[in-house]
């Protein structure tokens, strides 16, 4: 694998945790392996590996963008990642409040519901 892939896998593990990445890798098939390589190199090995903004800020941006675009499926995963990125519950709420103002209350409302549910699950674990 490329150096960017190796960097991406390292960053991905730091942000999402070994358990999550191990599950994703175990579920990888021949069909989606090229896609997994693409996101590992581009999202994790390029964007998340860039040190110009902190992992905390990147978490907040990612959550806001996911909510703004209506890509709700990945919000719980990125809420769980806040334990490792340093984004607090208040940080996440602030990001979703920006979504409400600039992209719509329904999207922010749904994202907040997902965050609340995920935080509750995390507290029980």
UniProtKB/TrEMBL annotation:
Stored Pfam families: CMD
Sample GO molecular function, one term: peroxiredoxin activity
Protein name: 4-carboxymuconolactone decarboxylase
Carboxymuconolactone decarboxylase-like domain location: 34-116
């Amino acid at each position: 694998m490329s150096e960017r892939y190796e960097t991406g896998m390292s960053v991905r593990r730091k942000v999402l945790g070994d358990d999550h990445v191990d599950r994703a890798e175990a579920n990888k098939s021949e069909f989606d392996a090229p896609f997994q390589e693409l996101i590992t190199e581009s999202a994790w090995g390029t964007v998340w590996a860039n040190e110009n903004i902190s992992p905390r800020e990147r978490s907040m941006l990612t959550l806001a963008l996911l909510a703004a675009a209506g890509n709700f499926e990945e919000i719980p995963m990125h809420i769980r990642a806040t334990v490792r990125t340093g984004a607090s519950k208040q940080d996440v709420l602030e990001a979703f409040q920006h979504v409400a103002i600039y992209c719509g209350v329904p999207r922010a409302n749904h994202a907040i519901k997902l965050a609340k549910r995920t935080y509750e699950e995390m507290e029980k674990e």
